[in-house]
């Protein structure tokens, strides 16, 4: 549905986004994760058509965004980080204005406004001035204007930023409900939001896309933790004979009856068979096996490791140059 190809944005000599490529399919909730200043907002603005890329393209349902901007934006919902809502307007007047901007007219406009008011639970605030609303209600109004017209694609920049826990939970429920009939891409610097909501994560670092993984794949790891009283020399000799074991690292080598080893495998597949081989080798050599398990990765460790890999890659390129 959404295809991003070689996307780039420069501000003078500064490259904010460099050669970003990804595809998002119908019905996915995708999280764009990165530190503040990583390039997330710049990407979101280009995806929504409010910022033109210096290079590359965005296509939605095989239609180029820049060449068909008005047509596509009518079927696109956008919640920017700082929504330009007018503080002197009432909520109902603002939604009426937003519907006009999307070309929603007549009886359909009234039906749509009624629908988004119910979905975002803002009926009690319809006649209130926007300037009097809490941060949470302003975000709800922002979502309401974004989902007017039942857009096929919803782009949300930091949707839970500044919300209290109760407001955050309501926003999550709202995003899940919207995802029943729309593809959602949201940006955030908060890992818990991606873990709570998303099917897939894209990690941005220094304007580059460095990770594109499904959340279901995230916990898959090619690292096994082993606790045994087999000495390091024998662990290295015996276990490296297993073809899939690439690296062995001692986690603690204290004066204890057993050491903990970290085994890095060449693949995350067939781990049960590999663990069975490891257990057989240790027990057949008359050593004790205290623990043997796959190390589960979380989003934080993936974020950290990916960022470190990017730094190391740049250092290697600098050294070569």
Descriptive report:
This protein has 321 residues and is α/β, with parallel strands linked by helices. The longest helix is centred in the C-terminal third of the chain and has 22 residues, at 299-320. The strands form 3 sheets. Strands 6-7-8-3-9-10 form a 6-stranded mixed sheet, with helices on both faces. The protein is elongated and about 80 Å long. The chain has helices at residues 40-48, 69-73, 91-101, 106-120, 135-146, 165-178, 191-197, 215-218, 232-239, 271-284, 299-320; strands spanning 2-11, 14-24, 29-33, 55-60, 63-64, 76-79, 153-157, 183-188, 200-205, 208-214, 223-228, 245-252, 259-265, 289-294. Keywords: ATP-binding, Nucleotide-binding, Transport. Belongs to the ABC transporter superfamily. This is ABC transporter ATP-binding protein.
Mean pLDDT: 87
Give the count of structural domains: 2
Low-confidence stretches: 310-321
Q: What's the β-strand tally? A: 14
Helix content: 25-40%
Q: How many whole angstroms does the radius of gyration measure?
A: 25 Å
By CATH, the topology of the largest domain is Rossmann fold
User: SS-based structural class?
Assistant: alpha/beta
In percent, how much strand structure appears in the residues?
Answer: 25-35%
CATH architecture verdict of the largest domain: 3-Layer(aba) Sandwich
What's the shape?
A: elongated
What is the CATH class of the largest domain?
A: Alpha Beta
Walk across the major sheet and give the strand order.
6-7-8-3-9-10
In N-to-C order, the SSE pattern is EEEHEEHEHHHEHEHEEHEHEEHEH
Count of alpha/pi helices: 11
GO molecular function: ATP binding; ATP hydrolysis activity
Organism: Aliikangiella coralliicola
Protein name: ABC transporter ATP-binding protein
Family: Belongs to the ABC transporter superfamily.
């Amino acid at each position: 549905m959404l295809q991003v190809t070689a996307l780039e944005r420069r501000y003078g000599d500064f490259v904010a986004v460099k050669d970003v490529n990804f595809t998002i399919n119908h019905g996915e909730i995708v999280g764009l994760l990165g530190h503040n200043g990583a390039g997330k907002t710049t990407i979101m603005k280009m995806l929504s058509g409010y910022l033109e890329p210096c290079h590359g393209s965005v296509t939605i349902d095989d239609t180029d965004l820049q060449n068909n901007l008005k047509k596509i934006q009518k079927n696109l919902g956008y919640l920017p980080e700082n929504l330009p809502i007018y503080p002197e307007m009432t909520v109902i007047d603002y939604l009426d204005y937003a519907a006009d901007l999307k070309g929603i007219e007549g009886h359909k406009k009234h039906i749509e406004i009624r629908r988004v008011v119910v979905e975002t639970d803002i009926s009690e605030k319809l006649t209130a001035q926007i300037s009097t609303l809490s941060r949470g209600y302003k975000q709800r109004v922002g979502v309401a204007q974004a989902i007017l017209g039942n857009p096929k694609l919803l782009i949300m920049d930091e949707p839970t930023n500044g919300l209290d826990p109760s407001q955050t939970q309501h926003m999550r429920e709202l995003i899940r409900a919207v995802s029943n009939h729309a593809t959602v891409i949201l940006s955030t610097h908060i890992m818990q939001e991606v873990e709570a909501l998303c099917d897939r994560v894209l990690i941005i670092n220094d304007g580059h896309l460095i990770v594109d993984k499904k959340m279901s794949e995230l916990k898959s790891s090619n690292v096994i933790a082993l606790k045994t009283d087999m000495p390091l020399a024998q662990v290295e000799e015996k276990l490296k004979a297993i073809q899939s074991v690439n690296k062995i690292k001692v986690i603690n080598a204290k004066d204890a009856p057993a050491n903990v080893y970290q085994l890095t495998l060449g693949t995350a597949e067939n781990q049960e068979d590999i663990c069975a081989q490891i257990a057989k080798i240790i027990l057949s050599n008359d050593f004790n096996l205290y623990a043997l398990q796959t190390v589960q990765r979380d989003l934080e460790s993936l974020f950290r490791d990916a960022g470190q890999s990017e730094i190391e890659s740049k250092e290697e390129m600098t050294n070569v140059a």
